[in-house]
Structure prediction request, 223 residues.
Amino acid sequence: MPALQAIRGPVRPALSRELPSIRQMLVRAFHDDPQFEWLMPSGSSRPARLHQFFGTLLRVEGFGIAAIDVVTTEHAISGAAVWYPPGCWPPPATRQLRALPGYARALGRRTAAASALVGAAALVHPKTEHWYLACIGVEPTTQGTGVGSALLRSRLAVCDAGGTAAFLESSKPSNVPLYSHFGFEAREPLRLPPGAPEITPMFRPARAEPLLTPARAREGACR
Prediction:
């Protein structure tokens, strides 16, 4: 789709006023994601639950701590990525406590399943300094046009400039080759209860020689 490629804007930090649009885009992007199909099995209530989930992630837990990158197409949000800087995952306990009611409302009776997922993920989360990709989503109508690759490339350039590793969990096996193309190495899938989707942790090692000092590359501190 060359026309979309031509009018797509550069990757840039999200503005506070754009958070509602980012949330709506993520609701559409993750509606058929295996992880959320498992956690929110009712297709009819999933949009409302995703709306609550991503609202909590963006406004309560992540904003001001996470780096939220966006790409726009014709003045609309076509993709977004939420990255936690080194040392900022998990978020401070105060943030987690403030976010807990929102996540509980989003997950309802599946809160225990979500806790099992979070616990399994915590067991394999790297202890070394790294940027953590909490989520990346692309508007369904612009998927396949390079938006996701642009988002990855932009933040990974920051990782490389600071000599910092990166980490993510892929909830779609079909996305593993894409992340591998950008240097992520797949690890053993998370050990989850029966019926859960396959979620693959992926780690991208740091560059041997950073181009910038880590302090400059982090773009701020966790608080």
Summary: The mean pLDDT is 90.
